[in-house]
Every structure is written in C-alpha cells, then in structure tokens.
Amino acid sequence: MATANSVRLVTHNKMGKFDLSHRVVLTPMTKQRSDGNIPQPHAILYYSQQASKGGLLIAEATGGVPDTAQGYRCTPAFGTKEQVEEWKLIVNAVHEQGDILFCQIWHVGRVSNQIKSNHETH
C-alpha cells in the first residue's frame, strides 16, 4: 500500500533538463559482445527493445579516448569514426522510441595496460 511519503515508479520525474515519464531506468550491463570494440547490429535491437517513451537507458561501459583506456575485449568504444557511426545507429533507434540514452564512459585504470600487452603479443 502506498503512503503519502512513498515514491511511485511510474510517476513523472524531472531529472535536470530531462522530463522522464517514469522512474524505471535500465542500468548499465557490460555484455562484451562487440567486435573490434565496435558495437554490433544486435545492440541496436537490444537498446531499442529496452526503450520506453520518456524513459532513461544507461549504455554499457564504453571505452573512450584514448584507445589505451580499453581494458576488456569485446566491449564497445567510441574513439574511432566507425565506432561513433555505430553508436549513432543505436542512439537514433532509442530516440525513435522516445527514450533518452546516456553513455557510461569508463577508463579501466591499470587493467588497460594488461589488455594493451595482450594485443601486442597476439
């Protein structure tokens, strides 16, 4: 039973400049399903299926610039033109559903040195 102080998940929420129709957010889940750190077409389907009008999605951990910040294989990045073009397709699909997509940018710290050495030896 809802009380006067409870927050309902399906109520409007103002988050900065964004008007959300509900408070349910897809949180980041790194799936390690990118090829060459490029998001694949299945990501367009995945994110657009999770979208809901006026909702918020937070994309999986995404490597930025420089590419040495990439610490795990098969995770998406956005440091090259090809990576950016693939992310645009994902963002457009989410926006078509009326949703907002934030990109979780990560730098994996010391792990990035390990992956770089693995790339050099293989």
Automatic annotation (TrEMBL):
It comes from the Eukaryota. GO terms for biological process: fatty acid biosynthetic process; oxylipin biosynthetic process. The keyword Lipid metabolism applies. Residues 14-113 form the NADH:flavin oxidoreductase/NADH oxidase N-terminal domain. Pfam families: Oxidored_FMN (PF00724). InterPro entries: Aldolase_TIM (IPR013785), OxRdtase_FMN_N (IPR001155), Oye-like (IPR045247). Keywords: Fatty acid biosynthesis, Fatty acid metabolism, Flavoprotein, FMN, Lipid biosynthesis, Lipid metabolism, NADP, Oxylipin biosynthesis. The keyword Lipid metabolism applies. Its cofactor is FMN. One of its GO terms (molecular function) is FMN binding. Belongs to the NADH:flavin oxidoreductase/NADH oxidase family. This is NADH:flavin oxidoreductase/NADH oxidase N-terminal domain-containing protein. The lineage of its organism: Eukaryota, Viridiplantae, Streptophyta, Embryophyta, Tracheophyta.
